[in-house]
């Protein structure tokens, strides 16, 4: 029986890897999710064949309750709330890994230097992922409306991390007393909170990806401690892919991961930058509609403002009207647009925007000088030209979408504020830029109404 179980785990591993590969493209992502889901179901079923397995009734009850809640939430969650849901799932995975290790410590089932070390690492990483994900969820949900930064934040981070590591080493050396273990878990959870609290919305996609990688690693470590190959494989695959994605996103922001964690961009503390001169010019929805209706090429740059307003369906309706009038409409997505990796891709796919109309930064930047109108909807830092030339700016060096190089730029924005990151956007003051103020949903709806009136 054990041989059959192990062979099944090999099949499960293949399904996980194939599923992950398919998820790398929007065209095959749905198929990848199905493969990975089948693998997880298979791993769960075959685990019940493990000889001597106990508490089967309780496990079935937990699966029914947890699976039922996940099925319901997956059905009702809005696409705009997906970042919060991802944060919740990250936290649950990390918390589960840490809880499993705590239970094994309490039962005295962890023996040997390597299992003890991996159990401690899984506990530390899982606890940080859990509490950090809770903070990320509260920020994304709007419950925490501002970044909280302690005096001497980095010193506090380093001191707290050092104490947690020392307690972990003490646990590995002695097996851990109840008092040491309780203090270890409490401080590890606190570390996740103090690391994540100062991080603002501009860095949140990278943080979500990093927490996802943490969760995978924690699960993989605990899989080794428990001797369950499926957990090891699933955890390492998630951890490795999450780490790679985090590195790619940090590179897209031209910021090392350490800089994102220890020197986050917050809305309150943006010194730096040489200032922006000029005035913003406003235009009406009628003018915006006419500008795009009689253009040949329009590139839409969506951002978090479109997600918050839930305007993706109106944007797609506008694109169809323009295409019906012979305008070439495409979409440009920055790697860190939105509040989680792939946030804009998910929203546009939900609205029915064809995959071949959506382009990454490297694919479309060279086309902006040939574009008649760039329509920026709720995006900010990812189109800010100061990233190219202002060495004093916190975003200097970050690759941006070259929307400012289009002949005309229309920016849909709620007001004249500097935005979530607190950095003034030079694009808004350029001679070729006009501002269409208002909620993205209402502003694009007004544009659609005017386009229909033009025939």
TrEMBL record:
Q: Which InterPro entries would you find in this protein's record?
A: DHS-like_NAD/FAD-binding_dom, NADH_DH_b, PNTB-like
Its localization reads: Cell inner membrane
Q: How does it sit in the membrane?
A: Multi-pass membrane protein
- What's the catalysed reaction? NAD(+) + NADPH + H(+)(in) = NADH + NADP(+) + H(+)(out)
Q: Which GO terms describe its molecular function?
A: NADP binding; oxidoreductase activity; proton-translocating NAD(P)+ transhydrogenase activity
| Enzyme class, first EC level, given as a word | translocase
Q: Principal localization?
A: membrane
Which stretches make up the NADP transhydrogenase beta-like domain? 7-449
Q: Which UniProt keywords apply?
A: Cell inner membrane, Cell membrane, Membrane, NAD, NADP, Oxidoreductase, Translocase, Transmembrane, Transmembrane helix
Q: Where are the transmembrane segments?
A: 6-23, 32-50, 56-74, 86-106, 118-138, 150-173, 179-199, 231-250
**Enzyme Commission number(s):** 7.1.1.1
User: Mind telling me which GO cellular component terms the entry cites?
Assistant: plasma membrane
Domain of life of the native organism: Bacteria
Tell me its family.
Answer: Belongs to the PNT beta subunit family.
Q: Tell me, in a sentence or two, what this protein's role is.
A: The transhydrogenation between NADH and NADP is coupled to respiration and ATP hydrolysis and functions as a proton pump across the membrane.
Q: What is the protein's given name?
A: NAD(P) transhydrogenase subunit beta
Its source organism is: Deinococcus metalli
